[in-house]
Structures are given as C-alpha cells and as structure tokens.
Amino acid sequence: MKIRKAVIPAAGLGTRVLPASKAMPKEMLPIVDKPAIQYIVEEAVASGIEDILIITSRGKTTVEDHFDRNPELEEKLLSSGRQAVYEQMVNISSLANIEYIRQKQAKGLGHAVYCAKTFVGDEPFAVLYGDDVIIGETPACRELCEAYEQFGLGIAGIKKVPLELIGKYCSLKVQELSSHLFRVFDMVEKPRPEQVFSPYAILGRCVLPPKIFSILEETSPGAGGEIQLTDAMRSLAAEETMIGVEYSGTRYDMGNKLGILQAIVEVGLQHPEVGEPFREYLKGVAQSL
Question: Residues 114, 217: contact at Cβ < 8 Å?
C-alpha cells in the first residue's frame, strides 16, 4: 500500500539548544539558508507523500508562517526584479497539503503521534521526527516507504550508535535480513548497560500501521514520565515483528548544538552559491587549528 500521509512531531521545547530556541522554534534554525523543518518537508514530498500533519505547540506559529504565502514579501521581490527568489518563496507554500495541530501538553513523542489519529484515519503513515534532518541521494523516508510496500509491517529507520551513547537513544533486538534490512523483535528506550540489545537504534524516521493508535491508547508513561513511541513500537514488534531499514543518508540532530554545526558545515560545502568560498574559508581556519 502506498504511503500518502506523514506526521512531523515538532512540539518539543528544544531545551538542548537554548538560548537559541527561547524565541525561535528549533525546527526553524537554519541550515545555511533553509530552516531545518523545510528539509524534512522536502524529504517527505520527494518520497511521494501528499498530505503532511505538523504537530506544534505554543510559540511555534513561525513554522506555520514559513509554509504560508507572504504577499508583501512576494510583491517586494517582484518589484525589484528578483523573479527566481520570488518563485522559490511561492514554491515553499505549495510543497504539499500541510495541516497543523497543537500538542497542548508535553506528554512525549507517543502522545504527539496519537494527536494525529484523526488525520491518519485507517492508513499507514510515515513519521519524520522534527529534530532529525537526513540528507542523502535517496530520501530516507522513501527507503522506509518502499520497505513498507514490500513487507506490510511497521518500519523503523535505524542506524548504529556508539555503545557509549546508546543509553541516550533506544536499542533494538535485530536479525539481519540483508545488507540494510533487519527483522526487529524487541527494543528498549534509553537502556541501562545490561539492557542493550545491539548498537542499532531508531533514529528519526518510521512508517507505522494505523493499529499503532490502539496500542498508544494502552501505553503507560515510560522513560522521563512520558508516553514513548518506542514503547508502543515495542508492543507492535512483539505482536508481528517490525522491519528495520538502515537508511543511506546522513542524519543531523538539530536538537543538539554539535549536530547543528555539523549540518551547516557539510551542507554549506555542497551549496551551489557559497560552497566554494566556504571551502576556501575552512581551509584557512583548519591551518590555524
């Protein structure tokens, strides 16, 4: 079944990147000249997604404004002869059918996804975490959607995490099927050392069947006192297993200061406008290190 809908949870407070996120949603932090959430929306669209629901919270109206039309700005660009930039701004507002809903209480990622129940209906859907920008030749979301069409099971986007850091993520019990596909039998959120199954963790993307909502209804608060999506996926994996896709793109954690810097540098080096002068600048900086 083709995946048509995607949910982007973007309601988090962004406390790891304060004070930048005090007045600006972390999803709007720029990578060179585009906010992080635009990369995520573009990935969804490039994966064949038609309808997107962005889960927001108080103080995040700038996310909605970004994907809306701005007649004053557009008129200014046209009157000054900046046709190419004008078209770029208009295209942002027509990327996809985008809706918004607020998560009124910070009850965790699982609760945020549950807020999408009416939007999703009885279809499978993709979840693209608002903290995670993934850049590669093939959109990560597309790789997951193709796996869902092949297996008809819940799909987790996974990567290896250094074992000393796995306690900040989740750990998966997996069986390798091929070079980038795994059967997922179990998982634990923020595991203690003795709970670690493997270095593989779910990072930033998943495709889920609609039955996840009935599972979330029965999911008790877990790590951090929040309703964890991982706990619901663990129940799903125990019931029918899931498939892990080790996606090919590079993930940047936009809720982490180092991740933001890495994204700016690596994307900046490939930017058609500033890539070459930026490369020369970095070479000069590197000589002084």
Answer: yes
